[in-house]
Design brief:
Blueprint lengths: L9 H5 L83 H11 L12 E10 L17 E10 L14 E9 L2 E8 L12 H8 L15 H9 L4 H8 L13 E2 L4 E4 L5 E10 L8 H10 L3 H11 L5 E10 L5 E2 L2 E2 L15 E11 L4 H5 L12 E2 L4 H17 L82 H8 L3 H16 L4 H12 L3 H11 L32 E5 L6 H13 L3 E6 L4 E2 L7 E2 L2 E2 L10 E4 L10 H4 L14 H12 L3 E5 L2 H7 L9 E4 L2 H13 L12
Parallel strand pairs: 13-14, 13-18, 14-17, 18-19, 19-20
Antiparallel strand pairs: 1-2, 1-11, 2-3, 3-4, 5-7, 6-7, 6-12, 7-8, 8-11, 9-10, 15-16
Helix pairs in contact: 3-4, 4-12, 5-10, 11-13, 12-13, 14-18
The structure holds CIS-heme D hydroxychlorin gamma-spirolactone.
Length: about 750
């Protein structure tokens, strides 16, 4: 092995050749170079970890560069990167400073255009494991039993710019890239199963209406403005999607707690070339849960990265989020309808009660990204990335998407070779005849990139169905005239919104009413509010009247007959119990509290896969002089209730002690004992208002009482030991919120 070159000594570094005068000493840096890491294999796919969390590739990620010495882009070692080359220490900078020019030029071009929609996102790696249950309907190899396929999933909001807040009211993108052995399959879905438009030609219209106003570029990442409501009130096929947006689905608690939907109807084909129509569903193991609107707004300021942080923290702590992939299966008839529902209309769902979602595999996200730009920003999804056994239908929205996604990557990623970017590289062998173009990184050999050829030995050859070729399903196309029209069934815009409304529980309806009232209050144009009320009247009289009252406007009568569809209980988010992995419990404590109880509570919370955060008057540790100090994660000044799913108030060290007022009085002030620190009161009252579980032990009821909370209410519990209280909180958290004490209009 060649002898390692030692770094230049300080004297050499301090004096640049030809430069008079002293150069300031370099900033102290580690001077012992480590072994250079092995060069990365050019054709390596993205690194993933196994289902048990073991890295499957060399972990180079935490190391920024692969060698000891800083170099130029061309590999020349650099003696200094902090000073431009100058004619004298106080003289002008010289144009010949190639390092300065390279460094600044590269920096100038660090940004690429953000996505025209879904610009704000967060992503993670994982694995998909087929159950084998789809074998009868699809020949896709990755769906076979126990086959493990690496995946990369990007979640996103739709409207906001790349730096916008996570918890805005919006649809969420849920895009999954399956790196299968038969080629890459992308399932580019949303957390809402219907779409605003039925034909892709209207996509620019709906997005122009929903994005910030073009004159002043406000509001950011919001639908609460005139142009959005102008469009959706004029264009009633958007009613169903808009209603979902105004429901709790528009403000998810976490990406880990969202359903995902392929939206369109797809066609699956089995080994015997028989086809069925399907809708794809992702079902989160943690259940579907949402924020309440006030929480969402507070989080936008407190922690704009709330969802991004939640996802990566959960993965880092080993609470790997999981979703089951399921399909609703329909016969592939020439009508392409099911129970009267047009399967080609992306504004319609098929209720799960009519066609159950059948599980076909499990996805586990088990590794965070190592470089946001390289992976999350550069990943390129495309609904046209299909594998044998999965095909498209004639949904006119899907047809436009099949064009748009390829097209957009060309401007976003700078040319047609984006499939060579590591995160986009298929794991299946690629043997294409695509050549040259911007950012070509492959060195293709051979002389005959055309078919047929004899000069490259006729290679590559074409595959047949028995060699895993992707063959479009030979669906019969009806003889028809060219028209710019939609089928008659596409004009029913109200039956399904009404179905959704009727399927909601009372608190969910309250939230929808509050959301419409909030959004329309933000509009300036009276005509837009009135037109939207007319749309609401055609969904439901109570909905319309309540929103009209909130706006101070008369409620119009329906102009279309109100239908009576059977409600679909599966659409409601309430009424079940779910695992609590990764939920965050804040423990309010101070130095005088029962610290052994705090310790056992922390352990009990960690043991049940949740996250305890100790909230205390100042930072540092509690019981700092003891054997087992308790780390404090939040001070009263830095904590806000929206960070926590539940709160636990530490008890007194001895039964019957009565120091609560004093202990929670603002540190260092001479307030009377009953004057509880207002930040603690805010924590408690806010958590209470948002229907969160609150517990405490050994005298904690006195502190709760000062916040107007009594222990006999739903979701509130005070007991004798901290472990018993953790158990109670965990049970309450399983239902997400104490819905029984949920106040109206939040
Ligand atoms: Fe789209 C991005 C989902 C309709 C055009 N879309 C994009 C992303 C998701 C969706 C999740 C983000 C992908 C990522 O994380 O990189 N889009 C949908 C769904 C739709 C839909 C579920 C309806 C069922 N989209 C749709 C239409 C068009 C587009 C009708 C155009 C005709 N979508 C795009 C795009 C984007 C995109 C402009 C922006 C960035 C990108 O593709 O890669 O091409």
């Amino acid at each position: 092995m060649a002898k390692k070159q030692q770094p230049a000594g300080d004297a050499a570094r301090n004096e640049l050749p030809g430069q008079p005068g002293p150069v300031p000493p370099p900033v102290a840096e580690p001077m012992q170079p480590g072994e250079p890491l092995p060069p990365k294999q050019d054709q390596d796919g993205p690194e993933t970890v196994s289902p048990t969390g073991q890295p499957t590739g060399a972990d180079q990620a935490r190391v920024a560069q692969s060698g000891a010495y800083l170099t130029t882009a061309q590999g020349a070692r650099l003696p200094d990167t902090d000073h431009s080359l100058k004619a004298g220490a106080r003289g002008p900078v010289l144009l010949q400073d190639h390092h300065l020019r390279e460094k600044i030029t590269h920096f100038d071009h660090e940004r690429i255009p953000e996505r025209v929609v879904h610009a704000r996102g967060a992503a993670a790696h994982g694995v998909f494991q087929g159950y084998g249950t789809a074998g009868e309907v699809s020949k896709a190899a990755f769906l076979a039993k126990d086959v493990e396929t690496p995946v990369f999933v990007r979640f996103s909001t739709v409207l906001g710019s790349r730096g916008s807040a996570d918890t805005v009211r919006d649809t969420r993108g849920f895009a999954t890239k399956f790196y299968t052995e038969e080629g890459t399959f992308d399932l580019v879905g949303n957390n809402i199963p219907v779409f605003f438009i039925q034909d892709a030609i209207k996509f620019p219209d709906v997005i122009h209406a929903a994005k910030p106003h073009p004159d002043r570029e406000i509001p950011q990442a919001q639908s609460a403005h005139d142009t959005f409501w102008d469009f959706v009130s004029l264009h009633t096929e958007a009613t169903h999607h808009t209603l979902w947006n105004m429901s709790d689905r528009g403000i998810p608690r976490s990406y880990r707690m969202m359903e995902g939907f392929g939206v369109h109807t797809f066609r699956l084909v089995n080994a015997a070339e028989e086809s069925v129509l399907v809708k794809f569903h992702w079902k989160p193991k943690l259940g579907v849960h949402s924020l309440v609107w006030e929480e969402a707004q507070l989080i936008n300021g407190m922690d704009p990265d709330f969802h991004r942080r939640d996802l990566s923290d959960a993965i880092e702590s080993g609470a790997f989020p999981q979703w089951e992939l399921g399909i609703q299966v329909f016969p592939d008839t020439p009508e392409q309808t099911f129970e009267g529902i047009d399967l080609l209309d992306p504004t319609k769902i098929v209720p799960e009660e009519l066609a159950p979602v059948q599980p076909i595999g499990l996805m586990t996200l088990n590794a965070n990204t190592k470089n946001y730009f390289a992976e999350t920003e550069q990943v390129a999804f495309h609904p046209g990335h299909l594998v044998p056994g999965i095909d498209v239908t004639d949904d006119p929205l899907l047809a436009g998407r099949l064009f748009s996604y390829l097209d957009t990557q060309i401007s976003r990623l700078g040319g047609p070779n984006f499939a060579q970017i590591p995160i986009n590289r298929p794991h299946a062998p690629v043997n294409d005849m695509l050549r040259d173009g911007m950012h070509q990184t492959a060195v293709h050999t051979g002389v005959a990139p055309y078919h047929p050829n004899s000069l490259d030995g006729g290679c590559p050859f074409l595959a047949g169905a028995d060699m895993s070729a992707f063959i479009e399903t030979p669906v019969k196309v009806p003889a028809a005239s060219k028209v710019r029209e939609a089928p008659a069934s596409f004009s029913d815009h109200f039956t399904q919104p009404r179905l959704f409304w009727l399927s909601m529980t009372p608190p969910e309806r309250e939230h929808i009413i509050a959301a419409y009232t909030f959004e329309l209050n933000k509009c300036y144009e009276q005509a837009i509010k009135e037109r939207t009320l007319q749309v609401l009247a055609n969904i439901d009289t109570e909905l319309c009247e309540e929103v009209a009252t909130g706006l101070g406007l008369p409620a119009p009568a329906a102009t279309e007959p109100l239908t009576e569809p059977d409600p679909s209980p599966a659409l409601s988010q309430m009424g079940g119990t779910w695992p609590t992995d990764g939920r965050v419990i804040g423990i309010i404590a101070d130095a005088e509290a029962d610290l052994d109880g705090v310790r056992t509570a922390r352990h009990a919370i960690l043991d049940s896969g949740m996250v305890p955060l100790v909230i205390a008057p100042t930072g540092g540790t509690l019981d700092s002089d003891g054997d087992d100090p308790i780390p404090i994660q939040r001070t009263y000044a830095a904590a806000r209730s929206v960070e926590f799913d539940a709160l636990l108030v530490a008890g007194e060290p001895q039964a019957g002690a009565d120091a609560y007022g004093a202990r929670y009085a603002k540190a260092g002030t001479a307030q009377p004992p009953q004057a509880v620190d207002p930040r603690v009161l805010l924590l408690l009252t806010e958590a209470y208002r948002h229907g969160k579980a609150i517990g405490g032990w050994n005298g904690a009821e006195r502190l709760l009482a000062s916040a107007g909370i009594t222990a006999d209410e739903p979701g509130i519990a005070v007991g004798e030991t901290s472990t018993a209280m953790v158990e109670e909180l965990t049970q309450a958290l399983g239902e997400h919120r104490a819905w029984d004490r949920f106040p109206a209009n939040l």
